[in-house]
Amino acid sequence: MLEINALENTKTDKQTNKPKAIFLMGPTASGKTDLACTLVEKLNCEIISVDSALVYKDMDIGTAKPDAKMLKKAPHHLINLIDPTEQYSAADFAEQALVLMADITARGKTPLLVGGTMLYYRVLLMPLDDMPLSDQGLRAKLNQQWEDLGAQVMHQKLEDIDAVSAQKIHPNHKQRLLRALEVFELTGEKLSDMQKQSKDFDEKVIQNFAYDVTQIVVNPEPRKKLHERIAKRYEIMIEQGFEQEVRALYERGDLTAEHNAIRCVGYRQMWSYLEGEIPLKEMIERGIIATRQLAKRQLTWLRGWPCLTWFDSMQPDMIDQVFKFLKGKGY
Fold it and tell me: Quick one: pLDDT at residue 12?
C-alpha cells in the first residue's frame, strides 16, 4: 500500500447522520474500473461514472468504456449520455450526480463514484460559483481568431487582460486559453480573479459535503508501470478497432477537430491521422504520449487533494486491501 494521507490515517470514523459514499480515483489505466466492478459484487454499491469522455455515445474503444458484459454485471450511471457534437460541463455532472446519489441512497445502496476527471469531483464537492456557461457563438469566434492569428498572439491577448492566468496557461493549451478569454469577454472579469474568490479546497470541504465520503486512489507504482499499462492499453485499443471507430465519426461529416469529443486523448491523434497530417506510427506514439500526459495531470491533482487513501494497484492483494479498508469504515 502507498502512503496514506496523514489526516485520513489519524482521523477516527465518527458516527454521522450523513449517508455514505465512496470516491474511487486514480490516473487513466490504473485499474479503477475493474476494482469498482469487484466492489459492486462485494459491497452494496452502485456506480456513477466520473469521466468526461464516457458521456459520449459511439465512443467506446478509445475511452475504454466498460463493455456490455461488464455493464450488465455492474451498471454505470452517466455514460452514453450525449452525441459527440454536444457539450457537457462539470456543472452538468455535479447536478446529475447529486440527484443520482440521493436516489441510490434512498434505495439502500452506497454511491460509488469512479473515474479520473478530477474537475468533476472538484465541482461536485465545491461548486464554482458565478462561473459563466460557455457561449457557442463567442467560442466559434475565438476559435477562428486562433486559426487566423495563432497561439502566441492569442496568448498575448490573454497576457494583456489577465497576466496571472496567462502565466498558468501554456500558449499551446488551446481549450484553457480560449476559456480564459471567453470568461473575460462574457463577464468583464479576469478568470484568475473569479478563481481567487473561491474558498480554499481543503479537508473542511470534504467534511462539509452532504455525504460521508471515503476517498480512495489506486495507482501503479513505480511510475514506469503506469506507462507500461498505458502503452499496452493503446495497443489493445488499436487491435479492437479504434481506427474504425474514429473513422465512423470522421465520416459523419458533422464533427471537426474542434469538438470537445474529438479533443479527447487518443481521438485527436487518430483524427490527425485520418486527416492525413501524420502517419500511423506517429499517431500511436502521440496517442501514448498524450495519455501519459493526461495521467501526469491527474496525479498532479491528486497529490494536492485532501483526505485520500492510496493503494498500489500493482500489489496482487490490492483488491483485498481495499475491501478490508472499506469494511473497517463501515461499508
Answer: 37
